[in-house]
Amino acid sequence: TSITSAKIQVNGVHLHYQQTGEGSHAVLLLPGMLGSGKTDFGPQLKSMNKQLFTVVAWDPRGYGKSIPPSRDFPPDFFERDAKDAVDLMQALKFKKFSLLGWSDGGITALIAAAKYPNLIHKLVVWGANASVTQEDVRIYNGIRDVSKWSEKVKKPLEELYGHKYFAETCEAWVDGISRFAENSDGNICQQLLPDIKCPTFIIHGEKDPLVPQAHAEYIHKHIKGSR
Fold it and tell me: Is-annotated flag, keyword Hydrolase (predicted)?
């Protein structure tokens, strides 16, 4: 089936999303830092089972085609994204849905699953973290300058945003996420993990250059029954 692309007003902003499939199991795909449905989930939108699933991929506010507004990173930006994501799915008339989130989208999905347990069916996260350590801050600062990124990763984002917005938003992200390191235990959402009641699957890449594996192990340990 084809992929529809549309915008819908949610919490005072116009959020862009793509939707495909007609299955009874609704799934929201949550992209990572600077990501969009198009850049992060092309293969999933194309290849996930359209009979089993109705697949929605969203662009969080300030990312992809959900501009304006420009992206900013207040202390509660993950909570704001979680509320936007859940409210988007409700605006699209899905009563219950699963979340598949990677990187920042994984953090957003963890918060959404904890805060809206009656709405979330299942949860899959990969490359996610529930806290920020000093070592993480060092890693983040290593990607602050987008001119040092590999062409493969940089090209689709430069095409999406133009160089200036891409470079400035990446710097703002590094500053925004690094602030969590000032919290006790570098906390982002550690206290919420025990509130996640849905079946949860955690995936981690051994060679993930941005998120050390200890983060995945922590999430697994603190979400009861997760795999």
Answer: yes
